[in-house]
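=== Discrete structure encoding ===
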Amino acid sequence: MKLGVLAIQGSFALHIRSLGRLGVEPVEVRRAHQLDDLDGIILPGGESTTFSIVLNQDNLGERLIARLESGLPVWGTCAGAIILGRGEGIPPRWGMIGVDAARNSYGRQVDSFVAPLDIDGFDHPFDGVFIRAPGFSNLDPDVVILARFNHEPVMARQGSRMITAFHPELTDDLRVHRFFVEQICSSFV
């Protein structure tokens, strides 16, 4: 299996490391042609406005949107989730998942925290790292909430698309990456 990680900025190297530890072939995606032959892609955390600027170069954004519309599995963490979601303002949202995604819903950088999360199907809590995390609201009926923090959704999926408000790549726990590979990408390959 060959999974891409949008390698523009943010925590892409940690996602690459996690995928490699799972035995998946990771691909750093910086150019549109690197989207060919992927079985899925991760849009990592980072600054969502920077993502939208860089995605306008080399037709990378247009090509990525076309691949996602054709069914390429995708996981957006934090800023990646914002771009995949719906909403007004900067950055432009793609509406690829039926969730409104609002920036910085859990506070600023100084308000970062780690919280244990009960994720559906996991046998023990996962340490969710929240850094300027987005909030998810107004979920479409077919969006499945996989985890909540203080009763609010922080991990969800809709078909071949998954979002997390937290950063699993900042831990050594591979369960969320494994879930993406085995439950989302494998069922669409």
